[in-house]
Each structure stands twice: as structure tokens, then as C-alpha cells.
Amino acid sequence: MVVTKDLSRLGRNYVQSGLYIEDYFPEHNVRFIAILDNIDTAYDTSNNDIAPFKSILNEMYAKDTSKKINSVLQSKRNNGEYLGTAPYGYKKDPENKYHLIIDKEAANVVKLIYGKYLAGFGTMQIADYLSKHNIPIPSDYTKRNRGTKSLTYGLWQQSTVRFILSNEIYTGTVIQGKRKKISFKSKKFINLPEEDWVKVENMHEAIISKEDFERAKKVIEATKGSRVVQNDYLFKGLLRCYDCGGYIGIRSPDKNGNIYGRCQRYGRFGKFQVCSPHNFNYQVFEKQMLEILREVCKEYNNTKKLEEIAKQTKSQQKQEIDIKAKIKSFKESIEKETRKLEVMYDDRLAGIITLDEYMKNADRIKERVKVYEQSIKELEQELSGEEDKTRDENRLDNLIQEFLNMEKPTKEIIREFIEKIEIHSDKQVDIYFNFKPLQEVNNNLENFICAKKKYEKKAV
Ligand SMILES: [Zn+2]
After folding, report:
1. Inter-residue contact 14 to 56 (CB < 8 Å)
2. How far is CA 441 from CA 307, 333, 429, 433, 448, in A?
3. Domains in the chain and their CATH numbers?
4. 290 CA distance to ligand 1 middle (Å)
5. Is the Cβ–Cβ distance between 178 and 83 less than 8 Å?
6. What's the pLDDT score for residue 445?
7. Ligand 1 centroid, distance to 269 Cα (angstroms)
8. What distance in angstroms lies between residue 423's CA and the mean position of ligand 1's atoms?
């Protein structure tokens, strides 16, 4: 039973609440009560029939409210009133929550960042300078008193510096309305084109002059896209550092054409004693990983063949036929019992048996029918479970076949197989498969462990 105060509490979207009231609840034997609307599906009253119309009215009401709120927000935006949480460098004016005032400590950091950038330092150098001087990163700065541990170890990222260098708010300009909700029903946002943004200048005290901001912007735009396009490696994105849980980055070939993998957190923050290198030769790794995968797949095929031979005496198919036959015979028994009941009823009417006898026998028959029905239910569940299992197995079989036939496997097929691969600092590798049977083969395979050892030696 579902009880709500009124219909609007079930949902303001009439298509969805209608679906529940008209289809889902009746189909699943759920009684629905909306107290203030006098709706109770256990009783057949005209109030229940009005429910869909009430739902439509509720939605119109919600749409109207949403429109009103939106127009209030829009006029605030047009007036340059700041609606979000205060950006790093500012805080909310205690006298007017739509106005920003300078937060001196953070504002000085912002000034320092712009100053260094315009003096020719790169974003990475600035980030490291701030980390070295123990300046808290913006997210830590705002929640300094809450004591939550940050994933970046409290160290400055280039992206944070870059973000501060391209945020026009520091010139006193408020920019809002960069995105909007698709509709009042949805939680999704779409990004709006720049010409639709609401931009109001001189709304609060500037930390950075407009000239300095424009100069910084030019440099940032010039460096955009200058980064080398990364190569698309077969195992890219699947490799994790066992020790810190971060990604293993695959670097561009060095002058000898060698490609190395390395813990990204170490690469970026190693100078601050974060994690360890986890260095390895990616080309060797890829070759051996493919060998391992092939071995696991072949081993899976072998064990499956053995299982099939073992099953031949009592094959799965035979089992399935047995179950179906049992269900059929139970159904026939139910029919027989029902017929008995009919005959007995006739006998009772003709006065051949007493009411007492009839009741006793009828109860017994109903009891038996119940047992048959329960057994049928259980057998049918068993049957559908078997079907699910075969479907998964077929998918895996096809994948393995495809993989083994490929001369050069694709990124896509590898992602079908593998969830992730963890790399230890001593170059041990743990493979996490998306398929349980493969994981089992992988865990049991004696020669796989040898292959892993082999890999260790070669990679070292
Ligand atoms: Zn690491």
C-alpha cells in the first residue's frame, strides 16, 4: 500500500504518476491512498477517476511556480546580483547575500598567481610554488575547519591555477547564466553559447585589473592546444596504481622509441613524496598482457570442453526437458483436482454427500492444488535461471572466439574483457575481469602465475 498526503506528493509529472496509478499499482496489487484528495483504489469511487485530471493540474501548478522562480532569478542575474557560492578570493557580503566582498588572504594568493603568470612563470611552476609554500588549495581553504582529506593531497594542480587565471570574476564582473535546465521536470543542464551569458561589470571590488586579466587571457589562449596529442594505447585507461589507486599514465615514446608507464600521481607530485614511480616498459607489458589474455581464454575453452564431456551423461538439455515434463504433469494434476471439486459439488447438490464431507474434501483438494502451484513456480524459476546463465555464457564464448581470431585485438574488445589492471611497485599485475568465469580461470591457472613471474623478470 502506498499512502501520500495528496496526489501531488506521488509526483508532479502527470505522465509518470498516471503510469503508477493506472498501470503499475493495479498490476502489482498495490493499494494507493491520497488522503486529502479522497482517493483510495481499494474502493471503486468517482474520486479515483478524477485522479488523472488532478495530476495534470498539479503539473501545471509546478510549471507555473518554476516559471515564477526563474523570472525572479533572471532579473537578479540581469542586475548582476551574484547567486552562486562565493568564488576563491571573495566572500559573501554579510549585509547582502547577492554581493561579494574581498577575502583578503585568498585574494592575495590570486594576485600572486596573476603576478607570477604575467612575469612569465608557467602554470605548473606556479602550482608547485604554492604547494612548496604550504598555501592551502581553494577547496581546502573553504572547508579548512572540516578536516576532510583531499584526493590531491592538498597540492596545487595546474588546472586550478588555470581556472583562476581565466575567471573574469576577479575584475569585478559577474557572469552568470552559462547553462540552464532543460525543463522544470529535469535535473539536466545544457550549456548556453557565450552571447547568451549575462555579464554585468563593476559589481564588486576587483582583485585584478581588466588589463592584467586580458593579458593573462591572451597567454592562456596561446598555450591552449599546444599540448602533444596523446597516443591511443591498447590498455590506456585500464591501468591503475596498486598503491595509491590513481591512474598509470603512459608516456610518449622517448628518443629510443621506448614507451614507459608510470603512476600519474607520482609523476605529478613525486617531488612532494607522493607514491612511488611504478615504472615499467609499456611495449613489453602490452605484448605479455595479450599473451596472458590469450592463455586465459584458451584455458577457459579447455575447462569448458571438459565440463561438457562430464555433462554428457546427464546433459543440461535433458535436465531442461525433465523440468518441462514435471511442470506439465503438475498442471495436469491441478486440472484433475479441479474437476474432482466440480464433481463433488454436483454430488453435494444431489444430496449424495453431506456438507461436512464436502467441506473437508474441498479443503484437502485446495491444499493439494496449492502445493502443485508452488512446485510449478519453483521449477519455472529454475528454468529461467538456466536460460540467463546460458545467455551470459554465449556472450562470453562469442567474445573469446572473436578475440582469439584477431591478429591485432582492438581497444574495444579488451574493454569488454577487463575492468582494470593494477600494477604493484614490484611489477606484479592483478587483472580484474568483467566475467566471473574468466576471473576464476585466471585465479586458478598455475602457468598464469609463471607467466606473471616471467613478465616481472622481463619488465625489470
Ligand atoms: Zn601511485
Report:
1. yes
2. 13, 45, 16, 10, 9
3. 2-77 (no CATH), 90-223 (3.90.1750.20)
4. 24
5. no
6. 60
7. 10
8. 9
Q: Is 432 helix (H, G, I), strand (E, B) or coil?
A: strand
pLDDT digits (tens, 9 = 90+) for 315-332: 667 777 888 889 999 999
Evaluate whether 117 touches 162 at the Cβ level (below 8 Å).
Answer: no
264 C-alpha to ligand 1 centroid (Å)? 7
Triad 143, 151, 276: Cα angle to 5°:
145
Residues lining ligand 1 (ion), CB within 5 A? 241, 243-244, 263, 265, 275
CA of 272 to the centre of ligand 1 (A): 13
What pTM was computed for the model?
0.52
Q: How many residues does the chain have?
A: 460
pLDDT at 453: 46
- Cα(422) to ligand 1 centroid in Å equals 10
| pLDDT beneath 50: ranges in the chain | 226, 228-229, 446-460
pLDDT computed for residue 440 by the predictor: 84
In the DSSP assignment, the letter for residue 26 is H
CA of 265 to the centre of ligand 1 (A): 6
- Ligand 1 centre from 161 Cα, in Å? 23
How confident is the model at residue 150, as a pLDDT?
Answer: 55
